[in-house]
Amino acid sequence: MNMALPRPFPLPARATDEILTRLAALHPKKIDLSLARMGRLLDALGNPERRLPPTIHVAGTNGKGSTIAFMRAMLEAAGQRVHVYTSPHLVRFNERIRLGAPGGGVLVSDAALAEALDRTETANAGQPITLFEITTAAAFLLFAEHPADVLLLEVGLGGRLDATNLVAEPLASVITPVSIDHVDFLGTSVEAIASEKAGIIKPRRPVVVGSQVPEALAVIERAAAKKLAPLFVRGQQWNVSEEAGRLVYADEDGLLDLPRPRLVGPHQIDNAGLAVATLRAVKLPAAHEAGILQADWPARLQRLPSGPLVARAPAGVEVWLDGGHNAAGGAALAHALCELEERYSRPLVLILGMLGTKDVTGFLTPFAGLVREAIAVPVPGEHAGLKPEDVAAAAMGLGMSARVARDVGSALDSITRTSQVPPPRVLISGSLYLAGAVLAANGAEPA
After folding, report:
1. In what residue span(s) does the Mur ligase central domain sit (predicted)?
2. Is the pLDDT score of 1 beyond 60?
3. Treating both helix axes as pointing N-terminal to C-terminal, what angle do 36-44 and 110-124 enclose, rounded to 10 degrees?
4. pLDDT band at 252 (very low <50, low <70, confident <90, very high)
């Protein structure tokens, strides 16, 4: 199986694919942050953003999707119907839009998605608009026209000028940890990026804040003060920690002794705590324990136990997948792998593909001393990926043994093991686009 192909395996043609291809040609730039085009389109659609269920708006650099996954699981376990909007998708565009339903939400159907996209295309009347903007408008239509108790809404990029930021009165704004990423669009300093993220704060609406470096927190606090928005900050109004293998959460309303999340890694303690803090801040019904145990979020330190791609690795090899792609994500992953190493020691092999806009050295630095070998691969599809040779050179610059493979399957084929040590632990990482291709090739499409 050649993972260098634009699509890892043939997918059936769908009307939604044709519509999305057509819509992508409406604006020359894939990313062009602005609220004007989105505002015009929403007006033409009758302003569905004003008819959404109570909305929790989530921005930040890392942990947005996992925090939403925890909130969704906690709310659904309490019987709530929950709409969810996230991006990007891994395998199918439908993953971005989950419609609340009794017993648990479901991904939007091809038919419903195609109908909503057709309506937004008609209303847009051929005017310039980015693909993210017009598909977000379609999502707003679907969310407004299907009943639910809550909408969990993830920012696409930044916050201040993101298409999702036309929701005027969210139930709460959430800001996950802020760090350096997307510098071409958000700025080169933590303060500048935090200012963009804090752009989702609305007047007098609660703001729940995860762990932040002091520079980012100061920016968020100033933005909240200007809007008279009450703050719920980790380390001030609430806290979370791991104690004796349990998650311990505390705020002014009391203490919760909860199980450790099923999602792997110490950073998921932080994400679960932020989810609990948010739902408690807005007084929504939530089954915290059940949600923490049930929450699932693909390609976030996900173990791949079997499948046609995994079968190409030598017997006994552990294969893990994560979409982490920036320096903070690399640090969280390295920490999690150190924890796995303490439980059961295995040589670590890193299979890595990254986009050209990412800081490969910043991502790899936390892995120095942990990795037996790094194997660089291209990111499949039409994405502007770094050359594998450049990724391998960055790894070697950090003292790692590194080489290049033509795709993930070939990298797995080439892994060797000896009888003197346990089979290796393999982490495939560096890009959500790479992660999506791996899931597709392994027959593990998110549901």
Report:
1. 58-277
2. no
3. 100
4. very high
pLDDT at 7 over 60: no
Structure tokens at 166: 């036309």
User: In which domain, by residue range, is 380 found?
Assistant: 302-441
Q: Based on the fold, state whether residues 316 and 361 are members of the same structural domain.
A: yes
Q: pTM for the whole thing?
A: 0.93
Residues 6+ away with beta carbon under 8 Å from 46: none
Q: Which residue has the tokens 């050295």?
A: 361
pLDDT at position 9 is 32
CA quadruple 35, 38, 43, 46: dihedral, nearest 10: -130
Burial degree of 322 (CB within 10 A; 0-12, 13-18, 19+): buried
> Hey, what long-range contacts does 187-192 have (CB within 8 A, 24 or more apart)?
189/215, 190/215, 190/216, 191/215, 191/216, 191/218, 191/219
Q: How far apart are CA 347 and CA 18, in angstroms?
A: 45
Domain boundary among 294, 326, 359: 294
Question: Are the beta carbons of 125 and 134 closer than 8 angstroms?
Answer: no
Let me know: does 220 contact 175? Beta carbons within 8 Å.
yes
Sheet holding 246-251: strands in order across? 238-243, 246-251, 254-259
Q: Tens of pLDDT along 328-339?
A: 999 999 999 999
| Range with lowest mean pLDDT among 122-126, 289-293, 413-417 | 413-417
Neighbours of 123 (CB within 10 A): 19
Q: pLDDT digit string (tens) for 99-111? A: 999 999 999 999 9
Is 44 part of a structural domain of the chain? Answer: yes
DSSP characters for 375-394?
Answer: EE-PPPSSS-BPPHHHHHHH
Does 446 fall in a domain? Answer: no
Chain centroid offset of residue 123 CA: 30
Token output for 187:
């700025």
Measured CA to CA, the distance from residue 166 to residue 38 in angstroms comes to 8
Residue 172 identity? A
Rg over alpha carbons for the chain, rounded to the nearest Å, is 21
Say how far apart CA 52 and CA 410 lie, in whole Å.
47
DSSP 8-state symbol, 178:
-
Render pLDDT for 342-395 as a digit per residue (tens, 0 to 9): 999 999 999 999 998 889 999 999 999 999 999 999 999 867 789 999 999 999
Closest by CA position to 355, among listed 312, 393, 325, 397: 325
- Note the pLDDT of residue 419: 60
Q: Is 56 helix (H, G, I), strand (E, B) or coil?
A: strand
* 80: CATH: 3.40.1190.10
Query: Which DSSP letter does residue 100 get?
Result: -
pLDDT at 6 over 70: no
| Gap between the Cα atoms of 16 and 334, Å rounded | 38
